[in-house]
Design brief:
Layout: H1 6-32, H2 51-56, H3 65-93, H4 101-113, H5 116-129, H6 139-161, H7 166-173, H8 178-206, H9 210-213, H10 222-234
Helix pairs in contact: 3-6, 3-8, 3-10, 4-6, 5-6, 6-8, 7-8
């Protein structure tokens, strides 16, 4: 008979609580979305219906949910592509030490520990002082890159740290140019990591709130739009 130690059940309980904490809010919102016409974001539920799903596809009295969705999708794709390209270039550059490489590395990592709202405020002030208009595809794009690039670079640093240069040497011995070596040898080998960086960049951009708050201008991204709509509905 299989007798598991008590620690197994304690760890299982802890893991169950962690999963509930992680996905509980999303599950709660999913349940509340079936509220009746007079219901809101509160329990107990006032009936059950598909009213709010039908409202989503109708003209909104407040907000532009589909416009903000398109903006977030476009911005996420822009950030994803830029993060992948710059991360690969940075990973290749940092394979060898160069003047100022240590300082540059710490400047990149510093973006992870600076409060997001301060980054948003700083980028917004820079654009304002420069006489430029804040826009989701300009200042918002730059602010989000300060969040996604450090993660992408850290992944690429780890990948190239254990990358075997013998593959590149073999390609050069066969007459491949530096560009052919990168495109036909390096990229296929690190492709799974590139996919991870791409998904990382898109996900971090798509749901980013704080760094977009003061840099998106007059057009909201989806997280800002949802926050604004719930705030308006709460004060009706």
């Amino acid at each position: 008979m299989d007798r598991r130690p008590r620690s197994f059940y304690l760890l299982s309980l802890f893991f169950g609580i962690y999963v509930l904490f992680l996905y509980g809010p999303t599950i709660t919102i999913g349940i509340l979305s079936f509220q009746g016409p007079t219901g809101g974001l509160t329990f107990p539920m006032r009936g059950a219906s598909m009213t709010w799903f039908s409202e989503l596809f109708q003209q909104q009295a407040v907000g532009d949910i589909w416009g903000s969705f398109r903006r977030s999708l476009t911005l996420g794709l822009m950030v994803m592509v830029t993060t992948v390209v710059v991360s690969v270039m940075g990973g290749l550059a940092f394979r060898k030490r160069f003047a100022g490489s240590g300082l540059l590395f710490y400047l990149v990592i510093a973006a992870l520990v600076i409060p997001s709202i301060l980054v948003s405020l700083g980028v917004g002030l820079v654009f304002s002082q420069a006489g430029l208009r804040t826009h989701w595809a300009g200042s918002g794009f730059g602010a989000q890159l300060t969040w996604t690039l450090p993660f992408g670079l850290l992944v690429m640093f780890a990948v190239f740290n254990r990358f075997n240069p013998a593959y590149e040497e073999a390609a050069r011995d066969q007459g491949a140019s530096p560009w052919q070596t990168v495109w036909h040898v390096v990229i296929p080998i690190i492709a799974p990591s590139l996919l991870g960086v791409a998904l990382f960049g898109f996900t971090l951009s798509y749901d980013e709130f704080a760094r977009t708050l003061l840099t998106s201008g007059s057009r909201n991204t989806l997280p800002l739009e949802i926050y604004g709509m719930t705030t308006n509905s709460r004060h009706r």
